[in-house]
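We were asked to recover a plausible sequence for a given structure. The inputs and outputs are reproduced exactly as logged, with field labels preserved.

PROBLEM: sequence recovery
POSITIONS: 124
GIVEN STRUCTURE:
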């Protein structure tokens, strides 16, 4: 499973996302769903949205093997919990550049990849 820190991934590209956080979240989720559909991403994907980005995509399924989770408070806490639960079922990759989140999730057994890793898969 891939767990995406959406705020961190969206924030890694200075494309004006801060003007429309909900729209940026909607675009990211759509790109992830398309990548899963056409085989660029083979794993199940959970996208964690926080703050204003939650207004862009409803919580729940967002395509085949793509799920959106809304963080009630800090996204990092939700990401750690989603990764912890998923690790009980198998391998987990957390996509983030956040150092604390990377350290926390890797200490629990997840692999960590930076936003560029995901963008390269989405941009193919």
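RECOVERED SEQUENCE:
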């Amino acid at each position: 499973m891939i767990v995406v820190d959406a705020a961190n991934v969206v924030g890694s590209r200075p494309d004006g996302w801060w003007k429309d956080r909900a729209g940026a979240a909607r675009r990211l989720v759509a790109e992830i769903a398309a990548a899963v559909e056409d085989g660029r991403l083979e794993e199940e994907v959970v996208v964690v949205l926080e703050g204003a980005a939650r207004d862009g995509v409803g919580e729940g399924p967002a395509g085949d093997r793509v799920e959106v989770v809304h963080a009630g408070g800090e996204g990092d806490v939700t990401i750690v919990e989603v990764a912890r639960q998923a690790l009980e079922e198998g391998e987990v990759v957390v996509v983030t550049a956040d150092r604390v989140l990377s350290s926390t999730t890797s200490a629990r057994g997840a692999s960590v990849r930076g936003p560029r890793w995901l963008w390269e898969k989405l941009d193919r």
